[in-house]
Design brief:
Blueprint: H1 5-20, H2 28-33, H3 57-72, H4 77-90, H5 104-116, H6 139-148, H7 152-163, H8 170-188, H9 193-209, H10 215-218, H11 227-230, H12 244-256, H13 261-269, H14 275-290, H15 297-300, H16 306-314
Helix pairs in contact: 1-3, 1-14, 1-16, 3-4, 3-6, 4-5, 6-7, 6-8, 7-8, 8-9, 12-13, 12-14, 13-14
Length: 327
Amino acid sequence: MKRNIWLDGMMGVVVGDALGCPVQFMSREEIRDRKGGPVTGMESGGVYHMPEGTWTDDSSMALAAQDSIRELGGVDLEDIMTRFVDWYEDGEYTPFGEAFDMGNTCSMAIERFEQEKDPMTCGGRSEHSNGNGSLMRIMPVCLHVYEKGFPEAEAVKMVHEVSGLTHNHLRAKIACGLYYFCVKEILDGEGSLNDRLQSGLDKGFAFYEQDISNRVELAYYGRLRDLKEFRKILEAKIRSTGYVVDSLEAAIWSLIRTDSFRECLLTAVNLGDDSDTVGAIAGGLAALYYGYDGIPEEWMTVIKRREWIEKLCLMNKGEDIFRSETV
């Protein structure tokens, strides 16, 4: 059967998000020292007191973007932002019909769009707009430009524009661009996951270095240039905060230190702090490599609205029968 990269990548994002949700905002030391110890599977609880298998804003915004792309057959910035409003105001694309866990930068961008109706100017541009809120939801855009076979420059431009809806600083855009190159190389490359990630990052760095104006911001990602050396870095030197550089590093580190989807995701979420987002970022790439069947079934069994998510991934372009489902 032909592989469905949407099912792989999007379920990886959702599962990673849900796995990390219960320990979000906990330090790795707090996770280790709690009564149950480190995360070993899906849990309930957490700061939002959610049942096991609950996914957060990370997946909601990614699913909203995916729904827009699949329904319209392409990227429409205004439509994506409109669906973000639907999520933010009305609880669309959520497990239980109510949005929760919104990041400040995303919230401000959505509110600005509601007032000004301009998707090109609603995203934050300041140094403080370098959280991971666009990286966490960029997977469907990466899959779309890959599937359509867009040239690199066109693909990166589209990735940047969708990042810019909420996070319009070059540093955040570059994180999304590097992620795109990793997606593409995982799907097209050869060899181990480490080899494919290294190849993807090499191509990403080479692309951005063509423009000298990128080099200052690109330098923030310098630890990712050599994954053999980066793999040797001790956990204590890996930060898993909501800062986009930290989140991308933590996800890549979890991928290259492990040999299965399960091990990768447990490594990622047990880093603590912004555990749901690091889990989502790592989970998408891990599932593209290990495949849908590599995701533990006992984790997927409890994913809220799993059937709806999987139907969305299997939709044909132009069909919109699932968007109207009530929650």
